[in-house]
Amino acid sequence: AQPKMVYISQPTEIGSMYSKKELQDLYQACKDCGLYLFVDGARLGYVLGAPDNDMTAADLAANCDVFYIGGTKCGLLFGEAVVILNDALKPDFRTIAKQCGSIMAKGRLLGVQFGAIMKDNLYSKICGKGTLQALKIRDALLAKGFKFVTESPTNQQFVIMTPAQFEKLSEEFALSHIAYLEDGNYSVRICTSWATKDEEVDRLIAMINEL
Length: 211
Fold this sequence. Notes:
single chain; Aspartate Aminotransferase, domain 2; three-stranded antiparallel beta sheet; 39% helix; alpha/beta; 8 helices; 2 domains
């Protein structure tokens, strides 16, 4: 039988994040059960730069079998960097990836990007700025009495809005309508990024205060 894998995202799709202790416990449980642990790091920079985060990239590398460092969502033109820690998973990986069309002929172009963004901790810095902007928006929403679907310490905030509030803010901002709630309100995602400007955040907060 083929070994099975546990797949998690750090941060998660709802903006929450695993602590160092949670990751250690999960990885130990995976090893006890003969499972591999794979960590999706598409938005990893937004965790590494979060104020409440207690996990470093080295901690992540010590507590999973494979993870990847997201590039596309964190300021790079394209690409993700796969980091394989478990030696048992390394043989033939490159050959299999090439056969599946998952390796660029000019792969060094990917490496140049990652080399630049990892210099002087730029990766965590620019993503951390996006996370701080999201938390600033969260605090403004809380001050106005808005309720949240879930608690998020990263760059994605999931807030409950009336249809009228959603439509008003959507006049100037691209909000994601996630779901219709039973009471007629909306679950809405507000997401900042490495590219979000401070003046955009200030404008959104001003509109929130006018609701």
